[in-house]
Amino acid sequence: MAPAAVSVNIPNSYEELNLTHVKISHHPAGSSTATPVVIVTLNRPEKNNAFTPQMADSLELAFRTFHLDSRVKVVVLTGAGRMFCAGSDLEIGFGDGTGRAVDFRDIGGRVTLAMHRCHKPTVVALQGSAVGVGMTMTLPAAIRICHEKSKYGFVFTRRGLTIESCASYFLPRLIGLSRAMSLITTGSVFPGSSKYFGDLFTEVLPEAGQVLPRALELAQDMADNASTLASAMSRALMWEGPTSPEAAHLLESRIFHHMTGQSDYKEGVNSFLEKRQANFQSDPYEKSPQNYPWWSEVDIKLVPLASKESKL
Predict the structure, then answer these.
(1) Which interval of the chain is the signal sequence (predicted)?
(2) CA atoms within 13 A of residue 161's CA, in its CB half-sphere
């Protein structure tokens, strides 16, 4: 079931939030307030970070908050302990399939949509193995970094389940339909260096201990040098762009025209000419183009039920 709509309170410090099965840290460590780079850690190491409804609630709230918080520029997602995520906690399960299918919303999908809709890019540091929703939840991220010898896979068919977390949309677009069909149909698990993943992982590192530091290095570079507004709009153009070159040209032209009127464009040019680091300030939540989103959004809210009184 989808949770009821809640108001989002932006905290002074994310480290003070009391989230279930998730921990948020500032980077660099020691800051008493939110930093441009924040680290979100799946925090059930005793259960190999197996995914739970409470973890989904925590992640969904976190990404919704980052979306609204102009202080946050990049999110790093990782796991505590030796595994990134062992998939859904099968001891909890998913229900028994009773009730109306139209009322069901998979919890992994809620998380991936929150990540996808967040203007701030996510870098995933898969420091250990990940299967099932542990893989599908990472698909909307801008960058995924993994460990060469850890095992990764989309094991749904081996559990009698179909894919979720919007994977039927994201995975073929990331690695191609042929590779996605193979991974999903077999449900097999492979090391991070396997050819079957194609370009799913931006970097594959030989040591597990290298994964999070490298993710933080990339995240800090983006936070320091890339416009959050330009990054958000560019990713949206690629994910939800038109279906023809001509339509892409027209849309890109409109968005490009909008960007030339923003302070980030002026700052980007001036910092380059003055040979200094840029100080981008445009908040995508406030400065997105008037025609954003330029696609038709699908309503995912639950279908309301008619009361008995209304039928009389």
Answers:
(1) none
(2) 18
For the beta sheet containing 189-191, the strands, ordered from the edge strand earlier in sequence to the opposite edge, are 83-85, 129-131, 151-153, 189-191
pLDDT tens for 69-103 read 999 999 999 999 999 999 998 888 777 777 777 77
Task: Give me the phi and psi of 123, to 5 degrees please.
Answer: -110, 120
pLDDT range class, residue 166, cuts 50, 70, 90: very high
Given pLDDT bands bounded at 50, 70 and 90, which one contains residue 240? Answer: very high
Q: Determine contact, residues 111/137, Cβ cutoff 8 Å.
A: yes
Give the architecture (CATH level 2) of 14-224. Answer: Alpha-Beta Complex (3.90)
Does residue 2 register a pLDDT over 50?
A: no
Q: Check if the beta carbon of residue 149 is closer than 8 Å to that of residue 201.
A: no
Strand order in the sheet with 143-147: 22-27, 37-42, 74-79, 122-126, 143-147, 203-205
Q: What length does the chain have?
A: 312
Q: What is the C-alpha to C-alpha distance for residues 133 and 89, in angstroms, rounded to an integer?
A: 10
Query: What confidence score (pLDDT) does residue 301 get?
Result: 80
Q: For position 8, what pLDDT does the model report?
A: 83
CATH topology of domain 228-287: Lyase 2-enoyl-coa Hydratase; Chain  A, domain 2 (1.10.12)
Q: Which residues pair with 38 in a beta bridge?
A: 26, 75
**pLDDT given for residue 5 in this prediction:** 53
Domains 14-224 and 228-287 share a fold: no
Report the alpha-carbon distance of residue 43 to residue 15 in Å, rounded. 13
Beta strands in the chain (DSSP E): 22-27, 37-42, 74-79, 83-85, 122-126, 129-131, 143-147, 151-153, 189-191, 203-205
Q: Where are the domains of the chain?
A: 14-224, 228-287
